[in-house]
# Entry
Amino acid sequence: MDDIAGDLALLGADEEAIEAWRAALAEEDGEDFAVWPENWPTVEVFLALSTQWRWTVAMSQAGAVPIPSGIDYTAIEPTLRLMGREPSPAMFADLRAMEAAALEVLTKA
# Structure
């Protein structure tokens, strides 16, 4: 659980978002969440792409603030191939859906 909180922080999630994630986990009585078998390949690829996010920097009164802008799409095809998977429009669409959900959480102010 602390590994995931650390990963969220590395991806730019603020403390409020991390605490919201922890609260959501607590409400689930510590149970793991389920991933439908047909979605597991997308989850594995999404996790493999965790170091391939693009970031921009915005200036504020507090200084530079990193803002995630999304996955570097040029990394998707080689990642899939190295994982022994063929690229497909369906996988790309699923990854974009996960990316959009992650961006919603990571950029929540």
About this structure: The first helix runs from residue 2 to 10.
